[in-house]
Amino acid sequence: MAMFADSFYPTIDGAVISMETQARGLEARGHEVVMFAPDTPKRLKMDRPVHYFPSFAFRSYTDYRIVWAAPRMMECVRKERVDVLHCHGLASMAILSLTVARALNIPHVLTFHTMANEAVKYYSFVPLREDMMVPMVWIYLRNLLRRPEVVIAPSAPIRDELIENRIKMKACEVVPTGIDIQRFTPKNHDPAFLERWGLDGNRVILHVGRLSFEKRLDIVLNAMADLRKEEPDLRLLVVGKGPASDHYQRLAESLGIKDRVVFTGFLPDDDLPKAYASCDMLVIASTFETQGLVVLEAMASGTPVAGIRSRAIPEFVKEGKNGCLFDETSCTDAIRRCLSKANSMKMEAVAMAMGFSIDTCTAKLEKTYDLAAEIMKNDLENRWF
Which part of the chain has CATH 3.40.50.2000? Predict the structure, then answer.
């Protein structure tokens, strides 16, 4: 299997995590995986072969890169004797991997990780107005997504949204990214972790994710300001960094809650499971999520979730059972409800996450690859007869 990415280590985002998780799941089931990625100033040592290609940084967010030349790509794919090309991006690598797939008659699968129509509101190649850019993105997506043998939607609401926006695909399958239920578990609860961040003796809300404007951490910070008087011991632990880190830290200060919010930046791999299991609840206000891996990671850790009622989030967060849902103006009340029932919702949270183990989701991915091969076989037969 060959996996293609528009963003790659050391950048860590949902697409990178998904690609790595699926690669490990496939390898555990006996498959070989090779990766194709944009070259970066700093390469990390990887556990599998990676082919790098010249790229330049996206101007409005330098962690994203565009591959501008790939003269060796087709030869690399041919030498690796690849059975399926799986692209985890919508930009240059989507186009390049499709070009290679067509030239070599290899099935192509593309995962729709990013709501590109929303992303252009924050990151754009060209200085055009939003009302011009969004329709252009949908035109691009309609042209792109009709070409792979299978488009993967990480959740059913995303599949439905693509169809509602007149995206015609050969096939669209819902295949969530699995979570490591051995790594994320309630057993990771660690009072020493909270003490290290000065949070011992407090009730702690957790936020995990890239600190960018589309994640809308401002909604959570405003809710914390609302709760300042009635919940004097409540604290917010913000894990992650990104292009809006300084903005959110300034906002916390201007709201008068600087002493109630802890920004950790990226946490070491060993600490993230402790963060999930040691906090009282997770909150997510992003309407950008195609799956929201952090939701399932928190639930696997026995931590209920307050999530915005948008796209993939309600697929996993069930009101009053494993968390609480809110709209843009009701985050404060959802946090209240979630805190009041946090202990009683832990078991339901874990039960939801158990259905999304890496092995379960990898089995679905294998079936999707088989479907892609069958579609290509039929297309080739129809082309010749």
Answer: 2-178+358-384, 186-354
